[in-house]
Amino acid sequence: MNLILLGAPGAGKGTQAEVICDTLKIPAISTGNILREAVKNGTELGLKAKEYMESGNLVPDEVVIGLLKERIAQDDCKNGYVLDGFPRTVPQAEALDVMGVVIDKVIDIEVADEAIQKRLSGRRVCEDCGASYHVDYKPSAVEGKCDKCGGKTVQRKDDHPDTIKDRLNVYHEQTEPLKDYYSKTGKLVIVEGQEDVKDTTALTLKAVEA
Ligand code: AMP
């Protein structure tokens, strides 16, 4: 099964992607994680992507389309995958169609902008393993230290309040039109993001199984 998770940055796509991937035993592919890893390692891809990412802009379509194409050609994608953070523009969705990728369902997680602001500005991530925390809703046991691996937890550069606003604008302008794109194909399912993540997860799994 090939699934797409749509939604604003901070809507919880990553968390839901993990749940789906555990349930269906298919990989979750996050273009954001692939790009962050490339930036951390200083690869050619990372050098191309860094500035766009830190300023809250989208990395150019041809760059992300190329990396996604390579990723889904890998062996572990044979039985399907969950795309988290791709496509983010109409040309990216069109590129999937051109590649012949058949999408079974597009799950759009809806969260209001004000809630997104709160979630992202309080988010902290582990520098080493990427585990995600929140200063109010999901603090690590020891402040600044990852519960899972003991790494340092930090605020992502693009989670600073001004950049969050830019990312939300980019989302509304460039990514939200994808709802229309996929609603025309009859594949779009809307999940209202809930305050308690467990409740959102229950709705997501219901949407996957429907
Ligand atoms: P994310 O972790 O999904 O919020 O992605 C972090 C950043 O990576 C985004 O703000 C973009 O700069 C970049 N990025 C991730 N996925 C894409 C994509 N599909 N198209 C363009 N840029 C992307």
From TrEMBL:
- Annotated AMP binding sites: 31, 36, 57-59, 85-88, 92, 156, 167
Residues recorded as binding Zn(2+), renumbered to this chain, are: 126, 129, 146, 149
Taken from the UniProt entry, a GO cellular component term is: cytoplasm
Residues binding ATP: 10-15, 123, 132-133, 195
Q: What is its EC number?
A: 2.7.4.3
An example of a Pfam family matching this protein is ADK
Instruction: Outline the extent of the Adenylate kinase active site lid domain.
Output: 123-158
- Per its UniProt entry, what is the enzyme's top EC class, as one word? transferase
Give the InterPro entries listed for this entry.
Answer: Adenyl_kin_sub, Adenylat/UMP-CMP_kin, Adenylat_kinase_CS, Adenylate_kinase_lid-dom, P-loop_NTPase
Query: Which keywords appear in this protein's UniProt record, sorted alphabetically?
Result: ATP-binding, Cytoplasm, Kinase, Metal-binding, Nucleotide biosynthesis, Nucleotide-binding, Transferase, Zinc
Which compartments is it annotated to reside in?
Cytoplasm
Name the domain of life: Bacteria
* Primary residence: cytoplasm
**Functional pathway:** Purine metabolism; AMP biosynthesis via salvage pathway; AMP from ADP: step 1/1
What is said about its interaction partners and assembly? Monomer.
Family affiliation? Belongs to the adenylate kinase family.
What domain notes does the record hold?
Consists of three domains, a large central CORE domain and two small peripheral domains, NMPbind and LID, which undergo movements during catalysis. The LID domain closes over the site of phosphoryl transfer upon ATP binding. Assembling and dissambling the active center during each catalytic cycle provides an effective means to prevent ATP hydrolysis. Some bacteria have evolved a zinc-coordinating structure that stabilizes the LID domain.
Q: What does this protein do?
A: Catalyzes the reversible transfer of the terminal phosphate group between ATP and AMP. Plays an important role in cellular energy homeostasis and in adenine nucleotide metabolism.
Name-wise, this protein is: Adenylate kinase
